[in-house]
Amino acid sequence: VMGCSKEKPHEEELSERISKVRQSDGSYKLVNTETGKTLISDISVEWITTGRDSLAVFAKDDKRGYFNVNTGEIIIEPTYKHAWVFSEGLAGVVQNDRVGFINSKGEVVIDFQYPYRGNSLSNFVFHQGRCVVANTDQRLGVIDTLGNWIIQPQYDDISLAPDYAVVGIKGEFNQQIGYDGHVILDCVIDNVYDIYYDVSYTDQETGRPSETRVASNEFYEYKVGDRSGLMNSKGEFITKPIYTTIYGLSPHLFRAI
Known about the structure:
This protein is mostly beta strands. It has strands at 11-13, 18-22, 28-32, 38-43, 48-49, 55-60, 63-68, 74-80, 82-83, 91-95, 98-102, 108-115, 131-134, 140-143, 149-155, 157-160, 164-168, 174-178, 183-188, 191-202, 209-224, 227-232, 246-250, 253-256.
């Protein structure tokens, strides 16, 4: 009978003394690599998320909590349906399908008032004191670490940069606005594309009719998010960005969907 060796368990180091070890049933546990002691067992699937903070998210029995990556100690018991990493002293967590923010003691700093589902958001993390959230009407805005609105919730899309935000409403132009509320640029587009149309001609070698596609040098398709609009070669907007796509039919005729 040939002998066989057991497969070495999958192990990943989370800090100098703490490692994540996969168990035979597919769950995970946290182990102190110096003492070999199991600190937290039966962590659901491979659900440990670490950020730059010393607290990391873990899942147990389909609930999320936080542990200290340096000691393995559970700091906040797993009681939340969803949770994100700590950033700038706060972490977003979900209770009753509403997002709120807690501090490292588990105390609620910003109450559970922002919808978790029904909008384009997926990551509730503060960056430079700002976080994009939605109001109860599913309109997006930006709050500070006290829960005050920096940018009022009236948009469909928001992307943040260090000194400004680009905000947009479907069918309208995006705007670049400062965090003091003033408009920096009134019309912001994402990209510009050539518009092609078919041209019939007679092949000089064969004398037969043929077709080719020609790019317009007068009109272009521009994009704002997933919407298209028509602009001319002078940079003037012929339509608002309200179409799915635009096709050229002739030099001055277009099919807009």
